[in-house]
Every structure is written in C-alpha cells, then in structure tokens.
Known about the structure:
CATH class of the largest domain: Mainly Alpha
Radius of gyration: 18 Å
Shape: globular
Strand content: 15-25%
Largest sheet: 5 strands, mixed, barrel
Amino acid sequence: MNQFITTQAIVLKTSNLGEYDKRMVMLTSDFGKITVFARGVRRQNSKYLAACSPFSYGELKAFPGREAYSFMDFAVSEYFEELRTDFEGSCMGMYFLEVADYYTRENNDDYEMQKLLYTSLRALSKTCGQDPALDARLVRRVFELRTLMVNGEYPGRDNMEGLSDTAQYTLYHVETSPLKKLFAFSVSDKVLGEMEVLCDGLCKRFMDRRFNSLDMLKS
C-alpha cells in the first residue's frame, strides 16, 4: 500500500457522491491541485462534515491512488467563517477559488498560487467587518494582478498606457511586495477606478472563462 501524504491544502470545490461520500478538489502546497475522495464525511456524526467544504484550509492526510487520492484526515486551521456568513464576501471568495482552479493543474507545482490564494482569502475576510480600512474591491484587483504575475501572463507596467503616477506606483507595489505586505495599503476611489478598468481588460484578455461567482456578485 502506498504511504500517505501530508500537506497544507485549501478546498477549492466539492461535489456529492452517493449518499454519504464527497469528491473534493484541493490546492496543496506540495502536490499542486489534487482530487480527493472522502468516504462517509457527509454523515451527520462525521467530524469532517464542516471541514470538507470550500474555503477550509489545514493539514491534509491522504493516500495516493492511480488517478486520485483517498481521504484520511483533515486538520482544519482556518475555516474563513467571515466569508461563509457574508453574502458578498462569500461570492468574492468563491471567485478567488474559481480563479485558482482555472489556473492550476493536477499534480503541478502551484506552491506560489496556493500561498497567494490563502493570503488573499485572509485579506478578504478582514473586509467583512473586521478591518474597515480594507476594501474588498481592492483586494480583488490585487489578487487578479498577482495571479497574472504568478502565471506569467502579466504584461508589465511598461505596457500600461494612460495610468496616473499613483496607479503606476500601486502596480509597482503589487509587483514587488512580499505576500505578508501585499495588502498593507489603500488607494483613492480614483485610483481604484483605474485599477478596476485595467484589471477588467486584463482578465477579459487572459481568463477565457465565465465565473459563476462574478455573475452572482453583479446580480
């Protein structure tokens, strides 16, 4: 029997199987995106009932199989409860999960993307009443820009025309800041408007997918 793996993981999406089982797609720090089959976790007395749902982050133990992993244990350290209980926060967070799912591949090295996703979800959760200085709209645009950078699709500031000096400096911050300082700033409504126009154009150009969570936000 193969030895089980241990890795930090975020649940991107789930689907129900049979009466009590669940299929999870998880983004891990060591094995990229993986599919995990969890048997019996939907039973009412299962200690993993809440853990095996989108946003959950923690230490996963699973047995590798030929095409997927078999669930063993998931010690959740962060549920992102603020996003689960706030409608707009939940939609925005689900958008982050959808983008991460779009860009990552099964068993690929997506360590940077996983850490970016986790850091961005933490910042987004603070906008749900914890930190009024943080704007969810700005968190979204920083996440989008940094995602394009991580995946080699960001065209660079030299190719951005018509941006104000402040917007250019904002891009410089997003390009160069370590993750722990990535969201430690704010911008004016004018600059945020510039960022929104820029990111909408870049996402339309590079992300060839319609995200259901964005449709819910717009409605």
